[in-house]
Amino acid sequence: MELNLIDQQGQSTAKVAATDEVFGRDYNEALIHQVVTAYLANHRSGTRAQKDRGEVRHSTKKPFNQKGTGRARAGMVSSPLWRGGGKIFPNRPDENFSHKLNKKMYRAGVCSILSQLAREGRLAVVDSFTLEAPKTKLLSQKVKSMGYDNVLIITDTVDENLLLSSRNLTNVNIVAVTHVDPVSLIRCANVLLTKNAMAKFEELLK
Known about the structure:
This protein is of the alpha/beta class. Helix content is 33%, strand content 15%. It has a 6-stranded mixed beta sheet with strand order 2-1-3-6-4-5.
């Protein structure tokens, strides 16, 4: 598998040999769906909570007479059948949303995403990606000069200049190889890898 090596103006200058095991896999939609679903589920905080009829703050007085009104009998307004009453099966904060996913499956899913990005021409390699100063304007101009509008930049290590410069840019994400997740790879229109990051990918995902 060969990937495009681009310069600072976004022009393709050469081809870089990449491992087929990481960047040349077949597209596996079912596996990618499972990996993304598990990643999102495992990041749920699980802090939601609802009240049952014993926890809702209502009067325990019978709302109206048992007979003579023509209405259905009712004992308390906290009944789940009433508006504002408790829930029959309430959600609890200790609910576990996590999905079990083997490391081998996770790595295979990430490799499948990277391979599909490479086939679609949305994945490119650059020698290095650095900034002289921590300025958002410099990073924005650099990304635009390379022809990108929405891009995920993956480096081997994220320096402070890049980290500070990207915080106010919603269309530019910068992450280290060890913090790449499948959702970020799918959401961004383009992915830019440094050479060192590509080598680290091949080392981690083999």
